[in-house]
Amino acid sequence: MCALRRPTLTAFVLLLSITLSEAEDATPSPAPTPELYSAQTLAEMRKLEQAALTSDYAYRQVAHLANNIGPRLSGSAQAQKAVEYVADELKKLGLEVQLEKIMVPHWVRGEETAELVAFPGQAEGTKQKIVLTALGGSVATPPEGLTAEVVVVRDYDELNSLGKEKVQGKVVVFNHPFDRKMAATGHGGSAYGEAVAYRGSGASAAARLGAVAALVRSVGGAANRLPHTGAMHYAADAPKIPTAAVSEEDAELMAALAPQGPVKIHLVLTPQTLPDAPSFNVIGDLKGSEHPDQVVIVSGHLDSWDLGTGAIDDGAGVAVAMQTANLVRQLGLHTR
């Protein structure tokens, strides 16, 4: 899971020379498929590959970032700890290390609860819990929460067809499913892109029609009762309303109940957006001996969302970049 996104991220960047060893001569070759790399370079690349497959260095770096440091939401103490840890590790490998100061968003998660307080067939004195999590950047509800009727829509066309009269004062639930069939055919990115549009812009679309909050079906292919957080953004032409992701099961629950009659939800979200906080890009440099101004960038982002420990997004990316530097040093390869 990724932390709040801006053009500048808290990142680890490894700078390498353009090749490990001398490339093939640039003289035109009559061969139909020109050789891009010398035999020596290809041999060194194979050495790197084999060494990486037998080394646990990258795994140990991911484990430390995820287990010892934990979630690394931008602006947090854990994010700063990750900066310091990676910088120290790169220095141990003999790299030239720079810390590039940047300012990052500092949004913190607060209380997040919801329950259906009125719905068709309700047993007297009962409520139904709704599993959700605030989306990154969301504003808060009043401290005591808000209570309103829900209106469930599948997409923006259905929302706009209702008009302000049927949306004003209500909580809009975007029940747009992730297209698992599309993902299964190798187009997971496109399927994610279709669904994530409601997470990113759903709140503003609902707010333009007078909604008091927006809930979005969690984006992704998992079929469970776990909400999936992520970033949202507010449009300049709409009021800012609280927004959260609900689990797939809870989105389907509200979609099933709403056609039967009025459904009311009580929602409490208390996140805060604090002033931007200082952080750092960590830059480790393995300078080439002949062309130090030519670089290959291997990188990952150090920050992560806070509902998990950021092992995959993007501790693994950071560790792969660290492993690259580690193995180049360990194998005695010379950057040019």
Can you describe what's shown?
The chain is of the alpha/beta class. The chain has 2 domains: 137 residues, Aminopeptidase, CATH 3.40.630.10; 161 residues, 3-Layer(bba) Sandwich (Glucose Oxidase, domain 1), CATH 3.50.30. The chain is 34% helix and 23% strand. It contains 8 helices and 12 strands. The strands form 2 sheets. The chain has an 8-stranded mixed beta sheet, sandwiched between helices. A 4-stranded mixed beta sheet has the order 2-11-1-12, with helices on one face. α4 links the parallel β6 and β7. α2 crosses α8. It starts with 10 loop residues before the first strand and ends in a 6-residue tail after the last helix. The N terminus is likely disordered.
Chain oligomer state: single chain
Ends: how far apart? 36 Å
Radius of gyration: 25 Å
Q: What is the tally of helical segments?
A: 8
CATH class division of the largest domain: Alpha Beta
* Number of domain modules: 2
Q: Strand share of the residues?
A: 15-25%
Mean pLDDT level: 90
Helicity, in percent? 25-40%
* DSSP strand count: 12
